[in-house]
Write a structure and sequence with these properties.
Blueprint: E1 5-10, H1 14-19, H2 21-29, E2 33-38, H3 43-46, E3 54-57, H4 72-84, E4 89-92, H5 101-109, E5 115-118, E6 129-131, H6 139-149, H7 171-174, E7 180-183, H8 195-207, E8 212-216, H9 221-228, E9 233-236, H10 242-250, E10 255-258, H11 261-268, E11 273-276, H12 283-286, E12 293-296, H13 317-320, H14 324-337, E13 353-356
Length: about 350
C-alpha cells in the first residue's frame, strides 16, 4: 500500500513553524511526500525543517498580527495549488486559542477529505479527526500528540526535539572567540525588553567578562546598534537569512532573547536560552523546548494571559524590572549546565528547565 501524500498546515510565525518540526518529522516518516502550507512569516522556517518536500505559502486572513483581507482570486490560487499536489491527508496545526476550521474548509474545497486538527468548535464534516488538546500542553508536544493520534508516530530513534538542517559555519561573522548572543527584538513589543534596558544588560554582561554578539533583522539595525553600543559586536542585519542566523546561534554559548522566533531557533540548534518571558502567553505552552533554559520575568504580572501585543502596564515591569544580577545568574547557570559546549549542531546540550527567575 502506498504511503500517503500529506500536507501539514501551520499558518502563523516562524517560531510556530519551528515548534511544529517534530510533528513534521513524524508525518514525513509515514508519508511518501510531505508539504507544508505556511504564511509568509513562517515559510523561511519551514525551509529549514527536515522532511519537508515542498512549501506552499498563503497569507491567511484569519492568522497573524496584521492579516490582510482575502479575495476569491487568492483562494482560487491556493485551491488550485493544493489540488495539483493530490494530497491524501492533512494536519492543521493551530495554537490552543485558534480555530482550524477556516483552513479545514479550504482543504475540503481542494479535495482533501481526510483532515485532522485540535478543535473545540463543532467541525461538521470538515475534520475526520477532531482532536482534543491535553490541558497545558507545550505547543511542540501538542502537535506531536495530534500527529501520533492521526497515525504518524515519531520514528524509532527520534527524540522529538526541535531540529533544523545543519546550519552554516558563521565564524567569519562572529569571530572565533566564545560569545553570548543577545537578541533584543521580538515580533511584538510586549515580549521584549525596552531598548535601554537591553543595552544595560549587554553592558553588564560585557563588564562580567562575556563577549556579546547582538543579533537582529535588517529592519532592526537601529535597535541593535543602540543595544550593542561600545560593549558588543553588532550583527543587526548582518545575517543573510534565518539559516545564517541559526549558525550564529549554534555557535553561541547561550542566547538571551524574548519569547520570539530566535529563542525557538536557538532551541532547534541546541543552544541554552535565558528567555525574557512576558506572561502575556503561558510559559508552559511557549517556553524554550528541549534545551537548558531559564525564564526571566514576573510570571504573575498584571499582563498575564492577556495576549497583549503592546504592554498594557506603564514601564513594562514584567521584563524591564529584571535585574542585571538575575541575567548574570541565568547565564552562569546555563553555562554550568552545558560545560565545554562546542557548536550545538555537533554536540547538543541535555534538555531541562533550570527554573524560572522571579
Amino acid at each position: 500500500m502506498r504511503a500517503p501524500r500529506t500536507l501539514v498546515v501551520r499558518l502563523d510565525s516562524a517560531g510556530d513553524v519551528l515548534l511544529s518540526g517534530p510533528a513534521v518529522r513524524a508525518v514525513a516518516a509515514g508519508s511518501s511526500y510531505t508539504a507544508m502550507l505556511c504564511g509568509p512569516q513562517g515559510a523561511p522556517a519551514a525551509a529549514l525543517l527536515p522532511g519537508v518536500d515542498r512549501i506552499l505559502v498563503h497569507h491567511a486572513a484569519w492568522v497573524g498580527f496584521a492579516p490582510s483581507r482575502t479575495s476569491r482570486e487568492e483562494c482560487d490560487l491556493l485551491l488550485d495549488a493544493l489540488a495539483a499536489d493530490r494530497f491524501d491527508r492533512a494536519l492543521v496545526l493551530v495554537s490552543h486559542h485558534q480555530s482550524p476550521l477556516p483552513a479545514a474548509l479550504l482543504l475540503a474545497l481542494a479535495g482533501i477529505g481526510d483532515t485532522a486538527a485540535d478543535c473545540t468548535d463543532y467541525p461538521g464534516s470538515l475534520l475526520s479527526l477532531r482532536h482534543r488538546r491535553r490541558p497545558g500542553r507545550h505547543e511542540a508536544e501538542a502537535a506531536l500528540d495530534l500527529a501520533r493520534d492521526f497515525g504518524y508516530p515519531l520514528p524509532a530513534g527520534d527524540d522529538g526535539a526541535l531540529r533544523i538542517l545543519e546550519p552554516p559555519e558563521t565564524v567569519g561573522l562572529t569571530g572565533p572567540d566564545p560569545y553570548l548572543v543577545v537578541h533584543p527584538g521580538a515580533a511584538v513589543p510586549a515580549r521584549a525588553w525596552s531598548p535601554q534596558r537591553a543595552a544595560r544588560a549587554v553592558a553588564a554582561l560585557h563588564d562580567a567578562g562575556h563577549r556579546v554578539v547582538v543579533t537582529g533583522g535588517p529592519d532592526e539595525r537601529e535597535l541593535t546598534a543602540r543595544v550593542a553600543g561600545r560593549h558588543a559586536l553588532d550583527l543587526g542585519g548582518g545575517t543573510r537569512d534565518l539559516h545564517e542566523l541559526a549558525g550564529v546561534l549554534a555557535g553561541a554559548l547561550a542566547v538571551v532573547a524574548g519569547n520570539t522566533g530566535p529563542a525557538h531557533l536557538a532551541s532547534a540548534v541546541g543552544t541554552p536560552v535565558a528567555c525574557l518571558f512576558a506572561p502575556v502567553v503561558a510559559a508552559e505552552r511557549w517556553r524554550p523546548y528541549g534545551v537548558p533554559h531559564v525564564l526571566l520575568g514576573d510570571q504573575q504580572a498584571a499582563c498575564a494571559a492577556t495576549r497583549a501585543r503592546t504592554c498594557p502596564v506603564p514601564g513594562h515591569p514584567c521584563l524591564d524590572s529584571v535585574r542585571d544580577e538575575e541575567v548574570l545568574a541565568a547565564v552562569a547557570a546555563l553555562l554550568g549546565a552545558a560545560p565545554g559546549r562546542g557548536r550545538a549542531g555537533v554536540r547538543r546540550a541535555a534538555a531541562h528547565d533550570l527554573g524560572a527567575a522571579r
